[in-house]
Amino acid sequence: MAATAFVPNGLLGSATSNTFKPNGLLSKSAVSPGNEAGEEMEAESNVFKPTGLLGTKSKSLSGQDGGSVSEDASLETQTLSELRADTQTSSFSFVPTGLLSKSTPDISRPSEEEDSSLTHTTTTGVSNNTLVLPRASVRATTFDGKTVFIKRKPKTVQLRTTAASTSDRRLDLLDEPIHRLMEKVRSKQSERVIGPSTSKSSALEDNLWVERYRPQKFTDLMGNERVARDALNWLKQWDRCVFGRTNGKKRKRDDNENDIQDPYNRPREKILLISGPPGLGKTTLAHVLAKQAGYDVLEINASDARSGQIIDDRIRPALESGYAVRGTKPLLAIIDEIDGATGAGDNSNTFVHKLVQLTLDKPKKDKHRKDKNSTRAILRPIICICNDINAASLAKLRPHAYQLRVQKPSDIHTVKRLREICETEKLRADSRALSTLVGIAKGDMRGCLNTLQFIRSRSEEITEPMVRAATKGMKEADSSVISVLNNLFIPLSKKRVKDLNDNENRYVSRLSHEVDACGRESAIATGCFAHYATLRRHDPSFSRFEKAGEWLMTFDTLSAAMYNDGDFALSPYLPYTLVPFYPLFQERGAPRIERNQDDWNNLQLTKTNEEIYRSLVRCLQVASTRNGGDFRHLVNTPILQLEFAPYINRIINPPLRPVNSQIVRPEERAVMSRLVDIMSTLELRFVQERSDDGQLSYRLDPAADVFMTYDGKRAADVTVSRYAVRHLVAEEVDARLSSRQGDIVVKDKPTKQKGLTSKQKDPDEDLPSPSKRTKTDVVDIADRPPTDFFGRPIKVSNNAASLRNGFAKKYPVTYRYKEGNSSAVRKPIKMSAFL
Amino acid sequence: MSLWVDQYRPRALDSLHYHCDLSNRLKSLAACGDFPHMLFYGPSGAGKKTRITCTLRELFGPGAEKLKIDQRVFLSPSKRKIEVNIVQSNFHIEITPSEAGNYDRLVIQELLKEIAQTQQVDLNAKQRFKVVIINEADSLSRDAQAALRRTMEKYMSNMRIILCANSTSRLIAPIKSRCLLVRVAAPNREEMQQVLQYVSRRVGFDLPPEAADKIIDDSNGNLRKAILCLEALKMQSPDLSGPLTIAKPDWETYCHKVADLIISEQSPARVMEVRQKFYELLSHCIPPTVILKTVADRVVERVDEAIKADVMHWAAVYEMRMRIGSKKIYHLEAWVVKVMSIYKHFFYDMDLSGFD
């Protein structure tokens, strides 16, 4: 009674809210504090109350049991829970109306634990009381508007009576910070837990905790519920394909969409790509899913060779058959750590490329599959797991995969799970230590567990300093380019500094380690380069920028020496050339760094343009072959880009008027013919194209006009020729080109041409060796350029050709064998052979 | 139909327009039958290759002009295919080993040995040796140059080598000492004027001397550029009347824009702007050294006398570093920052470092 009256002095935090409810305590209904924290607070509120204003009742309370407890209070090990028990009992004894006990929340602990605690406490000579409290039902409204009352289980509260502590001791509690008190409570509780779990854990002692506490069922999974659900959904979409079953209306509706594309009822994306930082349970998720959905697992991870070969050798056969060797369940391929597989580059033999091909394989329609190359469609799901979704090797996979990103679960969940584990492992852990651990590990559950196990091997208690000591190495674990860049440019937050227990001024080793651990120095350097000029904009003397430039150049010099000359001994020095960006440019509260694409875009653009230059070079080479080596001096590298490319654009873009070729002025006609000459010589042509809005336009091919286009604008002094002009030019050029092709055939290979005409008449003629027959000088019938016995080309004399022409024209042929004209072996030959 | 550059290229030593004493010397060299290895060097567009072709004609007669162009494929030790274009006549062969990139040594070794070990088969040939022309000799790698030096001595009876380079500074001394060095200087204004007039006369139009002057101004002693420019001009304004604008190559205009940006404002924002421009230039495959040189030239033109030397000095320093390094944009930007800093210090005429 007194306690409730007293609470509103505001000293007691959450306890206040509980006790504040006006009729809550009195009517036994509404209060149900959820978590343990609330419980403790409450306990404290009970404890604290007797501090002052409290009237005679509380005085009498403390007075009553004061003397008997004073020696207990002097013990250093005196814990709060006992204190709480004291107060509860004392108040209970005092106020038997049950008002106070109502405000004590139920302890969310299994009953056997309570029992154990009971037994435990009884050994210490404390008597217990159990109080069964009826609880008010909860009122709820259904969708129909009906009101429903849901009955709640009556709850049981253990009440222990013990000799209570003295009130002056309680006054001391105020000096002690709350978290210390809570630690004490927790350690007391975990002590109580130890008893029953010993037998169970001893059997499993040799396992890694990570294995021991790996979730086995879908419901065991922690955090990322949405991701898990999505993944399971995706996997369930395979059911119709794999198991042939259709269940549920919802599934059917989904399938209607898919059916259109896929004859096997497979989902649209045939690969699931799970990504996320390490230790969040991606692999576990995949395995649990497979188990849940009833698959056997074929796992490929970094320990296997992962070249394109492995797809053909292992994955494809396994998935095509669909079952493991002696398995009864269908197979599911899990490809772990796929970002380490080969896949970058244009090579078609990489792992990732082949994997994508695997899923894209069109099922062959024809029934007989005799040729080995024909492939069957893959009818089994594939799950890929990676850390870095943006890895270059995954570029091809991403568009074909259903992507899920595993996020770090909120720390509370992780801490809770860890605490449960600590309890089963009889490791005394205070929640502060655990949350510190989770904070340092950045949610990496595996890392946390390993650390805990490591600590457990030495002591039975885990405290904050121990966590800090054990996680020294974890600080530099896994860092992406972006996060390293952020660390280079943004100073650590105060909290993080404390977390890492680091001296802010000693950044060099921290940052260089981080850069080193990331392992992609050149990407970081590019990031630094992209970012530094956006910072410190008010630097009057450019001194910072100059220094930054110097460091970047040093970096570049070192890395060039490394990669060009193979001087890899230099690599340890690279990270240090990037660390100076921290003292130079760090700014508190600077915006976080985004991925900067400038350099990459430039690289892509350069590649495109190089390709255009190459096709231009090809044109020049062809022209130079045709014109006796005329253009060859323009091909060389700097001349091509610096002189030829800009001027050829001006040469082929004269300002012509779009008029009919009949009425054009003579000088314009001259320009036109010159233009057509040049363009046809260089094989530059205008290609008709339809743009997005349906407009026809002519595009230069090869697109040499990019070389006078800077910043997306064409050079001002060159007029853009009109559509009509280009049309005119294009026609002329095409005509010229096609006629030239005819010329070439006639001029260069007359014999071949005629050989072909004669050849067309009898296809079964290649039998006699052509070389012998050409020597006889009778006819040349081979369909390749005639060569003599030694492979030298032979010029067929004119009369032979004309002779053959005669053959070709009039069909009935006369033939006379010219005796003595040949020293070659004679051989009977059919007349038809010569026609 | 060729461009004017090729169409009106002189074919014989006698028809060359300038450096007549050089032509005479080449003629007498070709006549005496004791033809040495040669190294032609000089700026781009001065007429080195023209002179080489003319010398060949002098040596072997018109047969040297019957060219055949084909592609040879070499296999690198790692089984990579390297394609090299080869221009050859019966008497000579012309290669550009820099096409093979890092594998130029391989090309040099295989090709030269092959040629050097076969004798001239044509009995009517004027000379008993064949000629190998190596273009862009200054971009040959060290290894390739080393491969060349012994071959040059060993097969002297069968083969002569003519190297063609912009500067001798990147050729190793043993090669230089084995060659007769011939410098082909850029033509002066009168000579260029003469050539341009010759070309226009051959084409059949009158070129106003002022227009030719403008072209010469822009082309900076590069005759090839001048003739290309002339042709562009003729195509763009066929009647050559009225005010003529001589087209500058686009990259040059763009570089000048960059220089103007640097001078007009010195701030981090401007640095970023300039960086974008550099990216644009680099993506057009303009060699970074050329970019730096052109921008620096333009900047020097526009700044005060007192800091000209400084700007140039740093341009040289950064250009050297750029050649050593691999990420060109870093060096370009570092130079820009340096220049901005110098300019700013000069402008405010005081040491700003105290403000930091």
TrEMBL record, chain A:
<protein>
    <recommendedName>
        <fullName>AAA+ ATPase domain-containing protein</fullName>
    </recommendedName>
</protein>
<keyword id="KW-0131">Cell cycle</keyword>
<comment type="similarity">
    <text>Belongs to the activator 1 small subunits family. CTF18 subfamily.</text>
</comment>
<dbReference type="GO" id="GO:0016887">
    <property type="term" value="F:ATP hydrolysis activity"/>
</dbReference>
<keyword id="KW-0539">Nucleus</keyword>
<dbReference type="InterPro" id="IPR003593">
    <property type="entry name" value="AAA+_ATPase"/>
</dbReference>
<feature type="domain" description="AAA+ ATPase">
    <location>
        <begin position="268"/>
        <end position="410"/>
    </location>
</feature>
<dbReference type="InterPro" id="IPR053016">
    <property type="entry name" value="CTF18-RFC_complex"/>
</dbReference>
<feature type="region of interest" description="Disordered">
    <location>
        <begin position="12"/>
        <end position="77"/>
    </location>
</feature>
<dbReference type="InterPro" id="IPR047854">
    <property type="entry name" value="RFC_lid"/>
</dbReference>
<keyword id="KW-0238">DNA-binding</keyword>
<dbReference type="GO" id="GO:0003677">
    <property type="term" value="F:DNA binding"/>
</dbReference>
<feature type="region of interest" description="Disordered">
    <location>
        <begin position="95"/>
        <end position="126"/>
    </location>
</feature>
<dbReference type="GO" id="GO:0005634">
    <property type="term" value="C:nucleus"/>
</dbReference>
<feature type="region of interest" description="Disordered">
    <location>
        <begin position="744"/>
        <end position="777"/>
    </location>
</feature>
<dbReference type="GO" id="GO:0006260">
    <property type="term" value="P:DNA replication"/>
</dbReference>
<keyword id="KW-0067">ATP-binding</keyword>
<dbReference type="InterPro" id="IPR003959">
    <property type="entry name" value="ATPase_AAA_core"/>
</dbReference>
<dbReference type="GO" id="GO:0005524">
    <property type="term" value="F:ATP binding"/>
</dbReference>
<keyword id="KW-0547">Nucleotide-binding</keyword>
<feature type="compositionally biased region" description="Polar residues">
    <location>
        <begin position="95"/>
        <end position="106"/>
    </location>
</feature>
<keyword id="KW-0235">DNA replication</keyword>
TrEMBL record, chain B:
<dbReference type="Pfam" id="PF21960">
    <property type="entry name" value="RCF1-5-like_lid"/>
</dbReference>
<keyword id="KW-0235">DNA replication</keyword>
<dbReference type="GO" id="GO:0031390">
    <property type="term" value="C:Ctf18 RFC-like complex"/>
</dbReference>
<keyword id="KW-0539">Nucleus</keyword>
<comment type="similarity">
    <text>Belongs to the activator 1 small subunits family.</text>
</comment>
<dbReference type="InterPro" id="IPR003593">
    <property type="entry name" value="AAA+_ATPase"/>
</dbReference>
<feature type="domain" description="AAA+ ATPase">
    <location>
        <begin position="34"/>
        <end position="187"/>
    </location>
</feature>
<dbReference type="GO" id="GO:0031389">
    <property type="term" value="C:Rad17 RFC-like complex"/>
</dbReference>
<dbReference type="InterPro" id="IPR050238">
    <property type="entry name" value="DNA_Rep/Repair_Clamp_Loader"/>
</dbReference>
<dbReference type="GO" id="GO:0005663">
    <property type="term" value="C:DNA replication factor C complex"/>
</dbReference>
<dbReference type="InterPro" id="IPR008921">
    <property type="entry name" value="DNA_pol3_clamp-load_cplx_C"/>
</dbReference>
<dbReference type="Pfam" id="PF22534">
    <property type="entry name" value="RFC_C"/>
</dbReference>
<dbReference type="GO" id="GO:0003677">
    <property type="term" value="F:DNA binding"/>
</dbReference>
<dbReference type="GO" id="GO:0003689">
    <property type="term" value="F:DNA clamp loader activity"/>
</dbReference>
<dbReference type="GO" id="GO:0006281">
    <property type="term" value="P:DNA repair"/>
</dbReference>
<protein>
    <recommendedName>
        <fullName>Replication factor C subunit 5</fullName>
    </recommendedName>
</protein>
<dbReference type="GO" id="GO:0031391">
    <property type="term" value="C:Elg1 RFC-like complex"/>
</dbReference>
<dbReference type="InterPro" id="IPR027417">
    <property type="entry name" value="P-loop_NTPase"/>
</dbReference>
<dbReference type="GO" id="GO:0006271">
    <property type="term" value="P:DNA strand elongation involved in DNA replication"/>
</dbReference>
<dbReference type="Pfam" id="PF13177">
    <property type="entry name" value="DNA_pol3_delta2"/>
</dbReference>
